[in-house]
Amino acid sequence: MTEFLQLAFQGFSLGCTYALIGLGFVVIFRASNVLNFAQGAMLLVGAYLISWLAVDVGVPFLVAVLVAASLLTLGGAGFQAVVLRRVTGQPPFVIAMITIGAGIALVAGVEAIWGPEQRLLGDPWGSSSFQVGGVTIGWVKLWGIVVTAVAVAGYFAFDRYTRSGLAIRAIAGDEEATLSVGVPVRRMHAITWGLAGALATLGGLFLAGFPGAPQPTLGDAALRAFPAIVLGGLTSPVGAVIGGVVIGIVEVMTSGYAPDWTGANFYAVAPYIVMIAVLLVRPYGLLGRAPAERL
Amino acid sequence: MTREPAISVRDLTLRFGAVTAFEGVSCDVARGELFAVIGPNGAGKSSLFNALSRVYQPDSGTVRFLGEDFLKLRPQQLAGKGLARSFQNLGLFPTLTVLENVLIGRHHLMRAGMLRCGLGLGRAEEQGHRHAALEALEYLSIADLAGTEVQLLPYGHQKRVELARCLAMEPAVMLLDEPVAGMSSSERADMTELVRRIHRERELTLLLVEHDMGMVMSVAERVMVLDFGVPIVTGTPSEVQADPRVIRAYLGEELQAA
């Protein structure tokens, strides 16, 4: 029982990080039908910026996180405004290729500046933990859950209760109609990229927390969050969060309970099996929906 | 007329390469007038409409809109300047609710502060917008559908939602692009009555682009007829209906000869 609870906690914590990453994908996708393949690289950059600010520059950790998140917000919005705006109207495939290129460039840039070795994150938690009924609660994991809850709540409040949130939900429906009611569509797209940047920073932060570390392969986790968003539905923020948590728990539970004959890395495969099983029943994911007629 | 017209078009021309969509179009739409543009298929109605909603940039000519140089405005600025438009094939957001579809029409009237609203400090303002949106829905007798997703509604109701959004934008001028296109005859009669009622009760300038002769003749105060991109007659419905050039444009030379 203790082992089960331990794995459940770890799975939930990992799932929260996947939820942050998945939300970053969904925020952009549902406004523009663009799958941002640079999301993984963005969270890598986020983690390295935090590490650099906290360790090398030496600012307090909270300040490092806020500055890094702000920089990625501006970077994301800037990338949309300067690069993607020029390819508006191109097929989503073209834009996806641009994001792949941008992702490769970002990863290469991080390696060029900081080298291929692991770095210290500079967080105040490290490997510290406490015990509750035999279950080890890592501080960084607990904070991951808390921060995810706050970020997700903040995002949903933005989505539901602000005029920009409403406008962004509308854009995917019909761009020309959104313009006709006075919504600056380009600015809204830039906002979605900014949000994705901020979410990527937080995702990167907790991926790089103990037992992880800032290292060039960190962004690969975005690929592991992928089954989460497909599972939840590419257009559904709620789906991304639920999918993220489910995939995190599946992954950790599998690594704990899968019999030996399944091999050492079965935990990495299990999320995809769950994803495929769900897609067989619900082709657009748990909460996703068939695309509207006009795209 | 002492007041400046709501819309004043002079020598407006739009070409796509070698194809002329319309040429030398001039007209004045007075404030509060219900002005219609009609013409056979391919006469340039929709192109003119799109030029007047800043989707197409005309090649030459001028448009004054409530005293401003219309062709300098950007599409997303029009709502704030008092222009609302409907779409021939609906410009709704299918996955949003009816109320949200109408509420977004008030985007330009909402204060920018995303933080303020997010923190709940804009509650009174939000209530005001919600109230205005509901009122527009009530005006069009679809308030009971406020919570329904738009994509689940029949076409006639979707058209009403679009009209409600236009009203909620609190415009001075409304552009309606073929409001009865694709409708059954009873829906058509309803929509015609709605347009007439909106014009009568809301003190709006209405510019209607429409294919349906019957509809236009029963609601419009003045009509401009386009044929092959050129305005051939402008006048009251009865003047226009009696004009041989209009009959020729609609029925064709051969039929008339026969």
UniProtKB/TrEMBL annotation, chain A:
Gene Ontology MF terms in the entry: transmembrane transporter activity
Annotated InterPro entries: ABC_transp_permease, BCAA_transport_permease
Coiled coil: none
Membrane topology term: Multi-pass membrane protein
GO terms for biological process, alphabetical: amino acid transport
GO CC list: plasma membrane
The entry's keywords: Amino-acid transport, Cell membrane, Membrane, Transmembrane, Transmembrane helix, Transport
Listed transmembrane segments: 12-29, 36-55, 61-84, 93-114, 134-158, 190-213, 225-252, 264-285
Primary site of residence: membrane
Subcellular location(s) per record: Cell membrane
Family assignment from sequence similarity: Belongs to the binding-protein-dependent transport system permease family. LivHM subfamily.
Name of the protein described by the UniProt record: High-affinity branched-chain amino acid transport system permease protein LivH
Biological source species: Paraconexibacter sp. AEG42_29
Organism classification: Bacteria, Bacillati, Actinomycetota, Thermoleophilia, Solirubrobacterales
From TrEMBL, chain B:
Keyword ATP-binding: yes
Residues of the ABC transporter domain: 7-253
Gene3D superfamilies in alphabetical order: P-loop containing nucleotide triphosphate hydrolases
GO molecular function: ATP binding; ATP hydrolysis activity
SMART domains membership: AAA
UniProt KW Glycoprotein keyword: no
Alphabetical keyword list: ATP-binding, Nucleotide-binding, Transport
Pfam family, one: BCA_ABC_TP_C
Organism: Paraconexibacter sp. AEG42_29
Gene: frcA_2
CC annotations in GO: plasma membrane
InterPro entries according to UniProt: AAA+_ATPase, ABC_AA/LPS_Transport, ABC_transporter-like_ATP-bd, BCA_ABC_TP_C, P-loop_NTPase
Protein name, UniProt field: Fructose import ATP-binding protein FrcA
